[in-house]
Amino acid sequence: QVQLVESGGGSVQAGGSLTLSCTTPRPTEDYNYISWFRQSQGKKREGVAALRTSNRSTYYADSVKGRFTISQAGDSNTVTLQMDGLMPEDTATYYCAADLAGRAWNFPEYVYWGQGTQVAVSS
Fold this sequence. Notes:
- By secondary structure, the chain is an all-beta fold.
- 0% of the residues lie in helices and 50% in strands.
- It has no helices and eleven strands.
- Strands 2, 4, 5, 6, 9, 10 and 11 form a seven-stranded mixed beta sheet that branches.
- The radius of gyration is 13 Å and the shape is globular.
């Protein structure tokens, strides 16, 4: 069974930074998209950022543009999400997802999901 493993969550103050990592069991090029979603209590899961592995195109939610960066790490099985300028509204559980099976990158219609990692931003 495919397992995506997230790491790097934690607690920071507003304005701080965190780097999340998603490790896949196969090279990331084996998946069409590697994406990050987040979900806070009482809210729907929302797409944060995506990496299209075929051409390294990146996509971002408007709420994180200019603050978050998704990229392929040096390790061919890892994608990172660099989060700068964190705000309290970024507080959520962040999930890695692989292999888009649906309409667009920001819909939670992926084949594989990780267990999630918590991010808490205090004001």
